[in-house]
Predict the structure.
Amino acid sequence: MSDHTDIVMPDDAGEHASGLADILHRIPHQWGRWIRVRKGWYPLIIELDQALAAIDPHYEVHQAKEKFGELRFYYAPSDCATNPQAMSDLVTAAEQRSTQICEVCGATGPDVHLNSKDRFYIQTLCMTCAARRDQTASSVDGEPEERKDGEVD
Ligand SMILES: [Zn+2]
């Protein structure tokens, strides 16, 4: 099986494509090699991946996704990981930072916070992106656009 046929590169990867590919290639084939965060968090997860790889070059990613407005980054150290606690600390720090970065545009600052449209659809957004989301959502029946493809929790 080729290592390149089954990764799911986001359409908006742009300049982050190679960094995202590094993450996607760490996911075991049978897990589904996609990430489910939006563009504003790509730099965050790429930076996290590089920091983890510096500690443990062969670690695995299991899932990188948004849940309840926060990053969830599931991974597994390799057998030769020398400092799993440091890896765990990096992931926790990145998950916490995600609550201060707009998931859509990457903005940071005092106007970035959790925005809930309803209890099933919570995102970390800046005020501009939150207003845009709510405008868009009201024109399409309020149906969340990014809840699909049978992910398991
Ligand atoms: Zn934004």
